Amino acid sequence: MKNSQYNTIYDFPNGRSVIYNAFTDTFIVFPTTQIIRRDPLNPENKVLMQQLVDNGMLIDEDYDEVQALKDKIRKIDNNDSHFHLHVNPTLSCNFRCWYCYENHRSSYMQAEMVENVKKLIANKIKEDKVRTFQLSFFGGEPMLYFDKVARPIIEYAQIVCKEMAIDLSVHFTTNGYLINDSIKDFLRDVNVSFQISLDGHRENHNKVRQAPGGSYDVIMDNIRSLAMMRKSIVVRINYTCEKLKDIPYIVEDIKSFPPETRPYIVIDLQQVWQDMNDENKVYVRERIEEVISSLREDGISATAPLHCDNVNHSCYADKRNHILLNYDGLIYFCTARDFIPENSVGILMNDGNLKYKENALEERMNVKFNRDICRKCRIAPICGGGCRQKCSEIKNPNYCVNGYSEEDKDRVILGRLDTIINSKMRGYGDEVDK
Q: What is the mean pLDDT of residues 253-271?
């Protein structure tokens, strides 16, 4: 047998060690002295030996785990039983956040295009292999023109999915300010979730998102009321180095919500991209890990970019059966790039069929996990070689598209271990070997 290349071992001062395998996403804690040689792993204890085999840390000499990972990525990202449609009802927005990459244009999806979207949904839903459908609204601010665009599309999707016995889920990525009582009443019986963003605590947030009387308290009240409706919400806190100190105050506001809201809220900490640089990288990551640990101790679910599982839960934009449709009918792959014609990869036709630019989709599907540096990386099974968007933009085959150092990889693994352990403590996930 041989060691898996996806093993990482940490030794601790208390005489214990942890071995983690990124492919099986499992770990074993053992007395450091139990393994007398590490390459190949050679434990004295036969029970430990069997655990190493069972958890994929020792594998057959002729087993090609790199090919196995390729096959796994291909199977997940080409899954045709799930259809995911992103719709931009508009590129207009009621705020002008300083860091936003989009050029907000006065626009909204016209009635004729709404009908074309309905035809697209019917075409895809009635394919034999589709079993689940996620309908997501992005933008711009998707709550603008809600009754003209989002409502009729959701109503139609509900009818078709019920007819075809397909599970429908709806999602909104929104700033949360325009979610009024009428919208809440309509969505009350819809299987809907939200990502709602904040830009610091009250004073700093209101400077970024200006509204009469301030926008912070309106958005926080909407988060609370949606959680009371048992709707899942990812509260995305956009932070800079300067605004790290705001996070505990936001958390205190969320902790003041009724206890029954707690299971429906996840805090996601995301650094504003213009604030990222090598000078503050280590400081920021250490502070964020401290915040996440503190949140989890308080029973609040939290995540950050280093807490990844990007193969099993790859980005929607990595999936073959994902479509991002702009208000004007142009097709895009990624929600994190500006919606300009040069970035478009196709167009929605009047009959509800998609017309891609030549080879655009196949080139996209073949670009991931093709780098030499990825094939040799110990965290590849949880990183996935980076997203397809970055892989298509960065051509150097020896450059990590995420810019990970070996120290960063250790942080990714420790973040993953923290996630596994906390999930287990809350009664979720698979059994953890101890």
A: 92
Q: Burial level of 34, CB count in 10 A (0-12/13-18/19+)?
A: middle
Asked if residue 318 lies in contact with residue 287, where contact means CB atoms within 8 angstroms, the answer is no
Q: Are the C-beta atoms of 85 and 121 separated by less than 8 Å?
A: yes
Please state which CATH class domain 78-356 belongs to: alpha beta
Q: Where are the domains of the chain?
A: 1-63, 78-356
Residues 6+ apart with CB under 8 A from 288: 244, 269, 271, 304
Spatial strand order in the sheet of 16-21: 7-11, 16-21, 26-31
| Helical residues (DSSP H) of 195-354, grouped into ranges | 202-208, 216-228, 247-255, 281-297
Q: Which long-range contacts (CB under 8 A, 24 or more apart) does 418-427 make?
A: 418/292, 418/293, 418/296, 418/307, 419/303, 419/307, 419/309, 420/25, 420/27, 422/296
The percent of residues above 70 in pLDDT, for the chain, comes to 96
Residue 265 clears pLDDT 80, i.e. is over it: yes
Instruction: Please give the mean pLDDT across all residues of the chain.
Output: 90
How far, in Å, CA of 244 to CA of 126, rounded? Answer: 48
Tell me whether strands 35-38 and 41-43 are parallel, antiparallel or unpaired: antiparallel
Angle between helices 406-425 and 281-297 (to 10 degrees): 10
The pLDDT value recorded for residue 433 is 38
Which of 235, 311, 312 lies closest to 266, judged by CA?
Answer: 235
Residue 239 pLDDT > 50: yes
Query: Residue 93: which of 136, 137, 143, 135 has the closest Cα?
Result: 143
**Whether the predicted pLDDT of 428 surpasses 70:** no
* pLDDT higher than threshold 80 for residue 36: no
Is 429's pLDDT higher than 50? no
In the block, tokens 């099974």 appear at 381
